[in-house]
Amino acid sequence: MWLTVECFSYCILYLLLPVYHRNVTSSSSRHAQMTHLARLLSPVFPLLRWKRKIKVCLPTVGVYSRSFCSTPSEPDPIGIHKRKLFLWFSHLPQEEKQFGGVFSPETMHVDPLILERKATEKGELMSYPLQAHVPKRLAVTVEQLFEPGNSWTEGRGLNVLLYGAVGTGKSTVVRKLVLDWCAGSTLTDFKLLLPFSCEDLSKLSSVASLRDLVSRKYLHLRRHPLLSGEGDHAKDVLFLFNGMEKMQLDFRIGSTELCSDPNEPLTTHVLVVNLLRKYLLPEASILVTTRLSALDRIPPKYVSRYAQICGFNDPDRQRAYFTGRLLQGSSDTEHNQEAQALVELLYLNLQRESQLAAACFLPSYCWLTCATLHFLHFTDSKAPIQTLTGIYTSFLRLNFGGEVLGSGVGSNVLVQEHQNSLMLYVVRTVGKLAFDGVSHKRTSFSEKELEQWIGGETKTDEELRQLAVFWTDVLDFFMAPCIESSKHLLKDFSEADNRRYVFAVPAMQEYLAALYVVLGENKSALEKLSKQVSVAIGQAGEDVSALVAVLSKFVPLRIFAIFKLLKFFPKLYDKISSRNKGSIAKTMAAEMFRTEDSYNEDILDQVEKSLLGVHGPQPQQYSEAQPFELYPIFMGGLLHYRNRVILEQLHCNIQSTTVVQITRALRKYLVRELSKPQPPEELMDLLVLLYEFQNPRLSAEVLASIRSIRLTNVRMTPLKCFVLSSVLSCAPPSYYLQELDLSSCLLTRDMLQMLHPAFKHAHYLNLQFNSLGSESCILLRDLLLDPKSSLKSLQLCDNPLLDAGALTLLEALPGNQSLTHLSLMHTGLGDPGTLQLSEKLHQNVGLQDLNVAYNNIGDNAALALVDACREHPNIHTVHLYLNPLSDVGKQSLYVRGVPQSVGGSGRRVKVLASVTEGSDVSEDWHPILSVIRENASSWDRDRVKQQLKVVKMQWNFQALPSIQRKELTILLWSSLMISVRFDALVQNLKLFVFSKVFTLFTEQNMVPRLCHLKRMEGQSFGFCLKIDVNSTFEITNVKQWSPAEQSGLMNGDRVLEVNEDYIANVDLHLVQRKIQSCGLHLFLLVLRAKEYEEAVLSGFDLHVLAQASKGDGWSKPRLCHIRRHPVNGMGLTFISVNGQSGSYMVNTVMEGPAEKAGVHTGDRLIWINGVKASTLPLSTLNRTVKKCGETLTVLVIDGSSESCYVRRKMAILPVVADCQSLPHNAKTIHLVKGRNGYGFLLRQERLASTRQIAHVLREVDVGSPAEGAGMEDGDLLLAVNWEPVETAEHDDIVKKIRGSGDEVTLTSISIPGREFYRKLGIPPLLFHERVSFHCQKSQREVPLGKMSHENVENLHYLPEHTGKIIPKLPQRTSEVFL
Q1: What InterPro entries has UniProt attached to this entry (predicted)?
Q2: Domain range annotation of the chain
């Protein structure tokens, strides 16, 4: 048998213990004897840990054998402590679990910048997030903070105070520090690390000694010798107190008793104070983390070192964080490639010093960015359901969970925790500011506005102290200096007037505004008072009613009945409250379907581009023109139960009755809005709203009013597919959509699989133009075989399915009986697939219409298919046009379609093979041309042209009846113009235009395109312009990623119009000036190079084509300036069009000021004083007219012209408008240098009215060339030699003027004039008289195709390195243009 040494040692101990117990009477002497026994057995104790066994041989015969259980050796407490700490601090918070648990602290953590501070500079903040890179020698690690330094005293531990603002990563640093210590990779000099939460310590009310306090939290460290206080054992101990701002420490000697014994019971705050004073365990080191507002709670003499966590101050740290977050959690190569691409785009955006880079200075916003991108790009149907609102709500709980707003004084900050909830304080201050910004469509705020909205109503000292804490700790977390606006100011950030503040993340403004409204904080003071009175009366009414009921038994007086009226007060308030909730729902619906947002991208694309920087920030557009499309979506998402639970933890309670009232009213308003046609992007936003709401009943009720969902041209992503499927899954099984249009949505096979539940609810499914391959047909086959599917029409045209995909679809024909229309047009179907289709067609008896047009089907396969269709019981139409069929084959198809039994009278199967049948006109030409019209923009033009040339060759167009002639012409014209979306335009064109367009389409096939270029302030449009030998303008050197490329411009394009003005034969410098002065928006009407060459050769009038592209009755919008009349006022009123908010028509007084200024009755109002009219209610418009002063500027357009702009998807902006009597105009003066120069001084000054930097013309000398040319002192310089210089540096402008030689041309404007254009938001050079093309009446015209020697000399190219449209001008004008 085997016996261990451990058993032997325990036997000795077992035999000796009774002896000692019998000889000891008192507990004290028993303790002394036990200590003596332990000292005697000390040589045996090491054997207890000896794991090697000793073989002992004992006799087995005649001996009673008893088994002994070997007791394991005593475990190491430090080892247990490390294991438990590692488990505790490795636990992921709920905010990380929502992503499926793929993240781990080891891979996610990136060390933030930590700077050691002196005691005198400990309160300094990082004033500017994008400041210069901090030298590495100043950055320190936590381990370096505990190295002995000048402040270290022998025998005493160090007290390190680590502080930082909210969101800089204090908790993450603490978590990583503990995990690294447990792994033995940092702070190895400390044997014991004891983390404590100051929030937990502040809640302990009972007294306890330090050792008891440790043992309560860490049972395995009970009576550990390192905490005994004997010797210098405590030098190996590090205390970590996290969140010192949540404790009230009093370092006054008279208020806090002294303690040096770790076994003495005291309150927790006294123990912490004595530890920091070094009275208790002076050898131990202490690390304290706190916020900025609590720095002074620990006197400097008790702090050895200060260190500030400064977040991620450079893009490299941010990129490392993004890489760690986005590149883990999946071994899928495709997933990692997409994640790597996202990281690169993020890094590029951060390097631009964008507003996102300023926000990601805080690691918390890096988390929010990664969480949002993970939601947008890696949503999986198998993962837990996540919403965008849920991410923002979790983000706030991650940063403010359990936080209260303490004032820094008093004994207990947890009193009235609900009233002092930090998140609720944020909502009532920052949320109020956000709501005001959303209401007035602006995102930037001055420092005075911050002071007014945040804490402007504070009264008591306690409120002032709370405000100071909030301003120090929290405000910078939400608000940041506006990076974009700062770029245009001097590099002096000390002047408060220059500084504008925006929300660190734009979506956070919309979230807080939505939370402010949903919580009911936007109520007026009267509404809040009525609620309190109603509650008080309701409570008192119950008591009074009970008392009256008792008294009425004894004193039956009728007057007692009047007290029953008290019960009506709560009911009355409930009705008022219900009406208020109805207004919230109405606001949600109105914000969802705003007319001016109809042409924006869907909200998910907007969120993505705001993060990846595809469009970048829009300087000076964050005011009235800023869309807030996330605002109503966040309002709906906050009503979701899961978000309400999280908000309740933050003490922001949303009552269930509020949710019910808003939901009931919202359903009514959404159904009302959906009765009108909505663009695809708006429908996508509606689906996102329903998804964020997560209310199946509401989704089902809203879907009941929707019969078709058309998401054409919406860029579908896995998230959008999941949203669509989730929303449609809420509908009952009996619900079916008449049409689900997903054409041109960039669908993939994986997206089809995610959309499978949505397809079950569709009768008509359109999947054309999606580049779906043959492998996608497997999913479509399964859909057709699904017994729950009732698909009647399947459109798959313009997808490369090929024969393999078609054969896969054919496998579903026998098992499907619901399909009646199948379109395989332009899918690459060949003869083998067609023959297989002919053989299996009889297996499905429900099919009625088969479209295999525009494929590679020959005569024999087509004949076989027609024969099979003729034998089919229900097929009535077969589409075979645009296939490579011979004339004989087409005639045979026509004959085969006629049943033999009838002898040629009538047709059973309609075969659409060509617009002609032999020498006769086909009676089916109309559907063929209709299909061509719908797809002409994406099909091969040569093939379409060949088909349509038959019309001219074989038809006698003039012999057709007038109705057919007009109808055919309309179809041909709309086939030509479909690429610019002019379907409805052709019905109003005149017949002579039709004939020219008909000739153009059949012979040349040319389509002018409208390109909208949008740039940022200081950015070029990104293309070069040259004038060719035909005196026309050619686009060259289109830069990658530039506004020109994004608009669709291509090298070789020929420009017909600039901002709706025809520019053929116009001088190059005039075109240059028009483009340079247009501001941030530029509209170009262009032709492809090949189309232009054909037009020149055929002598076609391009001006007619440009005019025809706009439509009949088109005219420019008009920018009109109205002066108030003493009697008639402005002479105009506004009325809503069809009662719709946001669309207004003008009524003018005959011969009134408005009519004289160019406004006509019936005009549509677009802008008023620089603000979009669609963003304002009618009451605000009327109030604007009354309070605008003596002048009013409006942008109007007639109704028919507005329809033309809407059809062309073209925004109506001042850049394309005609100017009507504006009060201020820029003036251009040409100076010739005199003997003493030009005679003026150019100074850079800050304007008193706007506090902006401007270049001012000063000190005009008497008799100088400047005075003679009309220069006035105080004018602002706009351009030098026609080149805008407002944003240029002062030294560069001086160089331009001096480099002009003896002559220079300057353009200037008065200060009131510049302020006038600034308020309107338009460039001051936009309507400058010399830029207008209409002033060039006397300009000599050169016919197309002819070029004089003088024009040849004007052929110059733009230097590629500039990226701007600045042509090299002829020598005779070199002094004007540089």
Answers
A1: LRR_dom_sf, NACHT_NTPase, NLR, P-loop_NTPase, PDZ, PDZ_sf
A2: 2-55, 79-309, 315-400, 527-581, 941-994, 1009-1110+1336-1373, 1118-1207, 1227-1326
Distance CA 265, CA 1241 (A): 80
pLDDT (0 to 100) of residue 74: 63
Are 79-309 and 1227-1326 in the same CATH fold? no
- The 3-class secondary structure across 377-388, one letter per residue, is HCCCCCCCCCCH
Q: What pLDDT sits at residue 551?
A: 56
Q: Distances in Å between the alpha carbon of 971 and those of 960, 976, 986?
A: 15, 9, 8
- Per residue in 965-1024, pLDDT (tens digit) is 444 554 454 444 433 333 333 333 333 334 444 444 434 456 788 899 988 877 888 888
Coil, helix or strand for 709? strand
DSSP state of 73: P
CA nearest neighbour of 761 among 794, 734, 723, 797: 734
> Strand locations in 950-1094, DSSP E?
1009-1014, 1024-1027, 1033-1036, 1054-1058, 1061-1062, 1081-1087
pLDDT digits (tens, 9 = 90+) for 1311-1369: 888 888 888 888 888 777 544 434 333 333 322 222 333 333 333 333 333 333 333 33
Let me know if domain 79-309 sits in CATH 3.40.50.1820. Answer: no
d(C-alpha 1004, C-alpha 1268), whole Å: 56
Cα 633 to Cα 371, 590, 661, 776, 925, distances in angstroms: 18, 12, 17, 33, 48
Torsion of CA 1242, 1243, 1244, 1248, to 10 degrees: -120
Three-state SS at 1164: strand
Which among 807, 810, 749, 753 is positioned nearest to 784, based on CA atoms? 810
Token code pair at residue 1090: 């090949």
- pLDDT level of residue 492 (50, 70, 90 thresholds): very low
Give the pair of three-digit tokens for residue 759.
Answer: 């397809």
Check if the beta carbon of residue 257 is closer than 8 Å to that of residue 266.
yes
| pLDDT higher than 70, residue 10 | no
CATH 2.30.42.10 fits 1118-1207, yes or no: yes
Length, in residues, of the chain: 1378
Cβ-based neighbours of 1068, under 8 Å, separated by 6 or more: 1025, 1027, 1033, 1354, 1356, 1367, 1369
SS3 1232: strand
Reference 865, options 831, 821, 824; nearest CA is: 831
Secondary structure (3-state) at 1306: strand
Q: Which strand (E) or helix (H) includes residue 180?
A: helix 170-183
Predicted confidence (pLDDT) at residue 28 exceeds the cutoff of 80:
no
Burial of 1050 (0-12, 13-18, 19+ CB in 10 A): middle
Q: Which residues contact 1092 (CB under 8 A, 6 or more apart)?
A: 1006, 1032, 1054, 1102
- Longest Cα separation, the chain: 139
Scanning the structure block, which residue is given the tokens 């207990």? 412
Whether 1040 and 1019 have beta carbons less than 8 Å apart is answered as no
Round to whole Å and give the CA distance between 429 and 478. 11
Identify the pLDDT of residue 719: 92
For residues 913 and 881, the answer to whether their CB atoms sit within 8 Å is yes
Burial group, residue 598, by CB count within 10 angstroms (0-12, 13-18, 19+): middle
Which tokens in the block code for residue 828? 């690459």
Give me the CATH code for the 1227-1326 domain, please.
2.30.42.10
Asked if the model's pLDDT at residue 578 lies above 80, the reply is no
Q: Do 882 and 861 meet the contact criterion of CB atoms below 8 Å apart?
A: no
- The first and second tokens of residue 1344, run together, are 């197309």
**Residues 6+ away with beta carbon under 8 Å from 1302:** 1232, 1233
Give the three-state DSSP class for 917. strand
The CATH H-level superfamily of 1009-1110+1336-1373 is PDZ domain (2.30.42.10)
